[in-house]
Design a protein that fits this description.
alpha/beta, Rossmann fold, Pantoate--beta-alanine Ligase, Chain: A,domain 2, 10 helices
Length: 283
């Protein structure tokens, strides 16, 4: 049987464990998660293990990034299977703080970012979100003191926000994004996919197909607006309600109107039934 990872739930215990690693001059990688682990998380862990001598995975469902109308209470929590998966991957330590540890009584500090956090994508529909993400990730970086941190590209705007925050605040951690892991039919893996009904699950891969079709048209030189509009139609005809389907500069997330404007990323967020899905691809 694989050796189970050390499970740490208090800051003093975490500091003792980290002091032991640092005494051996180990490189430390962090993979932040909210649990409900899937193959996308495993891909992050495997990359982290190739890049660092010790890997920490945090599991913390962060209430600060959920609005009151969102799914904090029902967000999938699969602790036993998560730990088993991490043990199988040889993870060294699982950091599993509770809410009182992360946000003790009187907690009054927030990391508020601009730049990619105000690009008019996720922030337009979830204005609370990035303040919650940057605050918790900033705390995780301060607590675990990693050399490297790994995030999936599925949450592309989040990746850009966290990368900018770490750079701007001189946090000493190199943030690395990894390619989105997909189901065989193209649906991006997400912990929220479990919310989909069978009919919704059958429709969900349309997001990826629409992005691929739009990217193909753009590379072929089709009219930019017409190609984007065609992709949006494919998505809505499949039963989705669009929050956004946009082409943005892949580094700054600024709006663009032509492939000549720089490296291009297509980003989509859409709702089907009660589930909101996001995805993106490069053009």
């Amino acid at each position: 049987m694989p050796r189970p990872p050390m499970i740490v739930r208090t800051l003093p215990a975490l500091r003792r464990a980290l002091d032991g690693l640092r005494a051996r001059k180990a490189t430390v990688a962090l993979v932040p998660t909210m649990g409900a682990l899937h193959d996308g998380h495993v891909a992050l862990v495997r990359l982290a293990k190739r890049r660092a001598s010790n890997v920490i995975v945090s599991i913390f469902v962060n209430p600060a990034q959920f609005a009151p109308t969102e799914d904090f209470g029902s967000y999938p929590r699969t602790w036993k299977s998560d730990v088993a998966r991490l043990a199988a991957e040889g993870v060294d330590l699982v950091w599993n703080p509770d809410v009182k540890t992360m946000y003790p009584a009187g907690f009054a500090t927030k990391i508020q970012t601009e730049g990619p956090a105000t690009a008019g994508l996720e922030d337009r529909f979830r204005p609370h979100f990035f303040g919650g993400v940057t605050t918790v990730v900033g705390k995780l970086f301060a607590q675990t003191r990693p050399d490297l941190a790994f995030f999936g590209e599925k949450d592309f705007q989040q990746l850009k926000v966290v990368t900018r925050m770490a750079r701007d605040l001189d946090l000493g951690v190199k943030v690395t994004g990894t390619t989105t892991v997909r189901e065989r039919d193209g649906l991006a893996m997400s912990s929220r996919n479990v919310y989909l009904s069978p009919q919704e699950r059958a429709a969900a891969p349309v997001l990826y197909r629409a992005m691929k079709e739009t990217a193909k048209r753009l590379r072929a030189g089709d009219n930019f607006e017409a190609a984007m509009a065609g992709g949006a139609v494919l998505i809505t005809e499949a039963g989705f309600t669009l929050d956004y389907f946009e082409a943005r500069h892949a580094e700054t997330l600024a709006p663009i109107a032509s492939l000549k404007d720089g490296p291009v990323r297509l980003l989509v967020a859409a709702r089907i039934g009660k589930t909101r899905l996001i995805d993106n691809i490069g053009v």
